[in-house]
Write a structure and sequence with these properties.
Shape of chain B: globular
CATH class of chain A: Alpha Beta
Number of helices of chain A: 2
Order of helices and strands of chain A: EHEHEE
Strand order of the largest sheet of chain A: 1-2-4-3
Number of domains of chain A: 1
Order of helices and strands of chain B: EHHEHEHEHEHEHEEHHEEHEHHHEH
Structural class of chain A: alpha+beta
CATH class of the largest domain in chain B: Alpha Beta
Number of helices of chain B: 14
Structural class of chain B: alpha/beta
CATH superfamily of the largest domain in chain B: Type I PLP-dependent aspartate aminotransferase-like (Major domain)
Distance between the termini of chain A: 23 Å
Strand order of the largest sheet of chain B: 2-8-7-6-5-3-4
Oligomer: heterodimer
C-alpha cells in the first residue's frame, strides 16, 4: 500500500458510515463526471476498501495514487485516466 | 348519518388521486428497482421522480431524501444514525421534553449505551427558549432534536432560531416534521435544519411510508444493513407503491396547501371559539397563535378524556386524547406535564385535528353534540364542582 501526505484533489466523496459496495459504486459514478487527469479523494471507514479500491482502479483503468489515514477514516486518491 | 372525523393526526384516508396512481405498482409495474433490465430501471426512474416530488414539497434536493417505512423510522434513523456516526466527537444529545415517543425512546435507548441526554423544558405554551438551548450546549454536544410542531398541543417551535444556535457550534440539528409537513408550509432552508422527518399519512399518502431529509454533509450510520438501496443508507427492497403514494401526495399538497391551511385555520377557530363559549372550565392547550392551522387541543376539567372520546364516537365524532401511548398505559401525558397542566386536568385531554376534507357543518355538529356530553360526564364525575386538594394539584410527572 502506498501511503501519501497532503495530496491535493479536484473532488471529494465522503462515504464514511456507508456500507459495501458504496465505496466502489459512488467513485465510479463520480469519476464519470470528472475530466481525465483529475484526482478524486474518497473518504471511507470500511476496512475492505484497503484491498478493494486499488483492485477496482486496476480493473477500471484508473490510477490509484495512494492513501492517507485519519483518526476515523481512510482517504484514498484516484486519478482519472480514461 | 351525521358525524365528523377530527382525528387526522392519527390517520387519514388515502386520497383517491393518490390511490389511483399507486394501484398499478402492486401488479402491472411490479419489478424490483434494483434490477438492471428495462422493467426494473423504469421503476427505478419512477422512484427517483417521487423523490424529487417529496424534495420539492420541503424545498430540498432529491438526493437529500431517504425513503423510510414511517415517520418513527425517520426519527430513529436521524437520532441513532447521527449518534453512532459522531460518537467519537462526543456523546451528549439535547432534545425537548415534549418530543414524540419515537424521539424520546430513541434517546433513552442511547442512554443505555452511555450517551448523555438533556431534556429541555418548555414554557406554558410548549415553546423552547433559545437561550435555554444555548445554556444546555456543551463541547461534547453532537446532536439537538426539537420537533417542528407538537402533535398533542399543536405548538410550532422557533426552529430556525434554535437551529442557528446549533450551526454556530458545529452541532447537527434534527427536527421531527411529522405533525407539520402536509399541514403547514415547511422549507428546510428557511428552517436551517440538517435533518427533518416526515410521514406519509399526514399528506394523504398510505401508512407504511415516510421520509428523512438529510443535509448531504451529515454522516448517518444506517439502521438497516443489507443492499445498496437508498444509496447504501437504508437496505431493503423499496416499497414502490408506498413511495409512489408519498410522491403523488406530496405533489398534491404542494399545489393545495395555501388554500388548505386557510380552510383548516377557519374551521379550527370556529371550533375553538365555539367550545370556549359553550363549555365552562376548559383549558385550550398549546400556543394560541403559533400553532398548526388545523389543531385544537383542550383539557376539560373533571372529565376522563377516554370517556369523552368514546361518547363522542357514539355520536360519530372521532377525536383523540393526544397521546395514545400514555393513554393506553394509564399514564398522564408527559407533554401536558411539561407545560404545567395539573395531573387531574390532564386526564381530560382531547385533541381535534382538522384537515382539508372537514367542513363547517361538521364543526357545527361537534359544537351541538359536545356540550351535553361534557355535562353528562361531569354529572357522573366524583370530582366535578369540588375543590381539588393542594396535594393533588401537582403537575403530572414525566
Amino acid at each position: 500500500m502506498k501511503f501519501i501526505k497532503d495530496q491535493k484533489s479536484d473532488e471529494s466523496l465522503d462515504l464514511v458510515c456507508r456500507m459495501c459496495p458504496m465505496h466502489l459504486l459512488e467513485p465510479g459514478d463520480k469519476l464519470k463526471c470528472m475530466k481525465k487527469g483529475q484526482v478524486l479523494e474518497v473518504l471511507t471507514d470500511y476496512d475492505g476498501a484497503l484491498e478493494d479500491i486499488p483492485d477496482w482502479c486496476k480493473k477500471c483503468g484508473h490510477e490509484f495514487i495512494g492513501m492517507d489515514e485519519d483518526d476515523d477514516y481512510y482517504r484514498f486518491y484516484i486519478k482519472k485516466k480514461k | 348519518m351525521n358525524g365528523a372525523y377530527l382525528d387526522n393526526a392519527s390517520a387519514t384516508p388515502v386520497r383517491k388521486e393518490v390511490l389511483d396512481v399507486m394501484l398499478p405498482y402492486f401488479n402491472e409495474h411490479f419489478a424490483n428497482p434494483s434490477n438492471v433490465y428495462d422493467i426494473g430501471s423504469e421503476i427505478k426512474q419512477v422512484v427517483e421522480e417521487q423523490r424529487a416530488k417529496v424534495a420539492n414539497l420541503i424545498n430540498a434536493k432529491p438526493e437529500e431524501i431517504i425513503f423510510t417505512s414511517s415517520g418513527a423510522e425517520a426519527n430513529n434513523m436521524a437520532i441513532k444514525g447521527v449518534a453512532f456516526a459522531r460518537q467519537k466527537k462526543g456523546k451528549h444529545i439535547i432534545v425537548s421534553s415534549i418530543e414524540h415517543h419515537s424521539v424520546l425512546n430513541s434517546v433513552r435507548f442511547l442512554e443505555r449505551l452511555d450517551f448523555e441526554v438533556t431534556f429541555l423544558p418548555v414554557d406554558e405554551h410548549g415553546l423552547i427558549d433559545p437561550a435555554r438551548l444555548s445554556k444546555a450546549i456543551r463541547p461534547e454536544t453532537i446532536l439537538v432534536s426539537i420537533m417542528h410542531a407538537n402533535n398533542e398541543i399543536g405548538t410550532i417551535e422557533p426552529i430556525s432560531e434554535l437551529a442557528a444556535n446549533c450551526k454556530e457550534n458545529g452541532i447537527i440539528f434534527h427536527t421531527d416534521g411529522v405533525a407539520s409537513v402536509g399541514n403547514t408550509q415547511v422549507d428546510v432552508n428557511e428552517l436551517n435544519v440538517d435533518l427533518l422527518s416526515l410521514s406519509g399519512p399526514a399528506l394523504g399518502a398510505p401508512k407504511g411510508i415516510g421520509a428523512l431529509f438529510f443535509n448531504k454533509g451529515v454522516r448517518l450510520m444506517p439502521l438497516i444493513h443489507g443492499g445498496i438501496q437508498e444509496n447504501g443508507r437504508r437496505a431493503g427492497t423499496e416499497n414502490v407503491p408506498g413511495i409512489v403514494g408519498l410522491g403523488t401526495a406530496a405533489e398534491l399538497v404542494s399545489r393545495d396547501l395555501p388554500g388548505t391551511e386557510n380552510h383548516c385555520r377557519k374551521l379550527r377557530n370556529r371550533l375553538v371559539n365555539g367550545i370556549l363559549d359553550r363549555v365552562e372550565k376548559v383549558t385550550y392547550t398549546g400556543h394560541p397563535d403559533k400553532r398548526l392551522p388545523g389543531h385544537a387541543s383542550f383539557c376539560f376539567e373533571a372529565i376522563e378524556g377516554e370517556a369523552l372520546i368514546f361518547m363522542l364516537a357514539q355520536a360519530g365524532i372521532y377525536t383523540n386524547t393526544g397521546s395514545a401511548c400514555a393513554s393506553k398505559a394509564l399514564k398522564t401525558s408527559p407533554v401536558l406535564g411539561a407545560i404545567g397542566i395539573r395531573a387531574d386536568l390532564a386526564q381530560g385531554s382531547t385533541v381535534f385535528t382538522i384537515n382539508g376534507n372537514n367542513t363547517e357543518k361538521e364543526i357545527d355538529y361537534v359544537l351541538e353534540k359536545l356540550p351535553p356530553i361534557v355535562d353528562r360526564l361531569r354529572e357522573l364525575s366524583p370530582i366535578w364542582g369540588k375543590e381539588i386538594p393542594e396535594y393533588e394539584k401537582d403537575v403530572c410527572a414525566h
